[in-house]
Design brief:
Layout (H helix, E strand, L loop, with lengths): L1 H11 L13 H50 L1
């Protein structure tokens, strides 16, 4: 029950009473730590992917702006 509440809290960015982990046996406690480690790593990569996506969108937009500016200067 505690592990499922932990996973739900992490996925929903909700609250979780960390003291509840103390009541787990050692095997489940280690599993909880692995879950937290995976969640942290996933968040790290997700934020990097988001930053990369925004950077690519900006590069495309800047490229389009440069083409429009070049086209406008040729018309003059």
């Amino acid at each position: 029950m505690t592990l499922s509440r932990l996973v739900l809290a992490l996925e929903s960015e909700g609250d979780f009473k960390i003291a509840d982990l103390y009541h787990l046996d050692m095997e489940r406690f280690k599993l909880a730590l692995e879950i937290l480690d995976e969640w942290r790593l996933d968040r790290h990569y997700a934020s990097k992917a988001k930053l990369f996506d925004v950077s690519m969108q900006m590069a495309v937009l800047e490229g389009q702006t440069d083409k429009v500016a070049a086209s406008e200067s040729k018309k003059r």
